[in-house]
Amino acid sequence: MNKEISQEQLNAFIDGELDVAEKEEIFAQLQDNQVVSHQLCELRAVKEMLSHGYAVPPEPVKRRADHAFSWGHMLAASVLLIIGVASGWLGRDWVKPPLPMGFAQVNQENFKPVSLTAVAPDANKIILHLDSAEPDKLKTLLDDVDYLVQKRLALNQLIRVEVIANSDGLNLLRKDVTPYAARIDALARQHTNVSFVACGQSIRRLSKEGVKVDLLPEATVAQTAVGHIVDRLQHGWTYIKV
Asked: What's phi and psi for 224, nearest 5 deg?
């Protein structure tokens, strides 16, 4: 008898973070268990919402004087969130597909589609998502975080900025890999409204590969990046893919 597959495992399956044996196990259940197939479809819908609805990164900033241009792109991403909700693409109630014959009595609590229809986007709460270790992206991300906070501080306005890193982006928050430990420490010390979050799913994947992951003390850990981002979106945060 196949053991039950958790939401965490399904997330890892979608993200391509399982080994061959684990993938085979899930493939086997997908063939025999239509409830698991249904759950996987819903999780894929969330992933599509994030990748297609919000994949508009701010353009790199080459000069300090041009930083207002980067902030403009972040505001544009906020507008995109509002438009997405209004148009029904991002914010539509994800309609649950009908359950297959024989599953009508399945506990509906197992299926929790994401809806943003009642969420009021807040441009003062920004979550930046990093999944790449490209040096230019790491530097640009920290430049923009610093600029955002300093600009709002000068205007006497409060902003909350959160960086969540998964996949290769986790390198930003790893003690033995990141080139920006001192800068992250300075940002966290100077600005209590800036936080850094690492994806626990990515950490577990690396651990299974024999890689010891030591995070910077400024980093906290979320169960999964996708789950954390969706939670933030449901609380009005503006999402920007770096």
From this structure: -145, 150
The alpha carbon dihedral of 131, 175, 230, 118 has a sign of negative
In order, the DSSP letters of 10-55 are: HHHHHTT-S-HHHHHHHHHHHHH-HHHHHHHHHHHHHHHHHHHHS-
Q: What is the pLDDT of residues 89-141, one digit of tens each?
A: 333 333 333 433 333 333 334 334 455 556 666 778 889 999 999 999 999 89
How many Å apart are CA 150 and CA 128, to the nearest integer? 17
pTM exceeding the 0.85 threshold for the entire prediction: no
Q: Are 206 and 168 in contact (CB under 8 A)?
A: no
Residue 237's DSSP bridge partners are 122
- Three-state DSSP state, 68: helix
Helix (H) or strand (E) run with residue 74 in it: helix 67-87
Report the number of distinct structural domains present in the chain.
1
For residue 143, what is the domain's CATH number?
3.40.1260.10
Which structure tokens are listed for 106?
A: 């399945």
Q: Tell me the sheet residues that pair with 130.
A: 165
Residue numbers of the domain that contains 150: 7-241
